[in-house]
Amino acid sequence: MDKNSAASKIANAGMSTYDVANSIYLATVEGVSGANQNQGYGFALSAVAELWNIRGTIGNPHGKTKITGRYKGMGVTKDRILNVVSQYPNGFRDREPQFDDLLGVSSGGGNRYQGKNVDTSTGGSQNESNLEIILAVAAFILFKFFLGWGWILSIILAFVVGGAVGSALDALGRK
To answer: 29, 51, 119, 163: which has the highest count of C-beta atoms within 10 A?
Structure first.
């Protein structure tokens, strides 16, 4: 099923954001198969999985997709799922990001999205990561070339500045 077919199927079912999140929760946390879901939305589970990039197995998005029981025992709540679906009520038009990444349950390959508000159209979280790097480089230039400090000390202090900026952004909830 492609993204357009999936979007049509969900629209024709009249599923609200809550319905989509509930369907994902029932399947992935409670282990209720699509065929046995309440309110007649179970048939649309494949479309939901396609549109919200729930693919493969955790850590292997290219493997055979396993939805039922996917997040069982991982502390994933209905509210966490609803939060992701609410941020992206129309799903994703691209293959990225993966739903697992946005929930913070992916393994392997790194989790670029955990704990971040991601705006895939503007690269929201990427800009903040770039800010840390830019400030670290600027700090290095300041320490090494303007203050005349040694290479090693300048590099260490630049990493400290970048880390401090990252921590400050985390504390402010901007990352």
So the answer is: 51
Query: Are 134 and 168 spatial neighbours (Cβ–Cβ below 8 Å)?
Result: no
Quick check: helix, strand or coil at residue 86?
A: helix
Q: Are 78 and 10 in contact (CB under 8 A)?
A: no
Report the 10 Å Cβ neighbour count for 137. 13
The Cα–Cα gap between 142 and 116 comes to: 30
pLDDT digits (tens, 9 = 90+) for 33-51: 777 775 655 668 888 888 8
d(CA 80, CA 21): 9
d(CA 15, CA 21): 10
96-105 pLDDT per residue, tens: 888 888 888 8
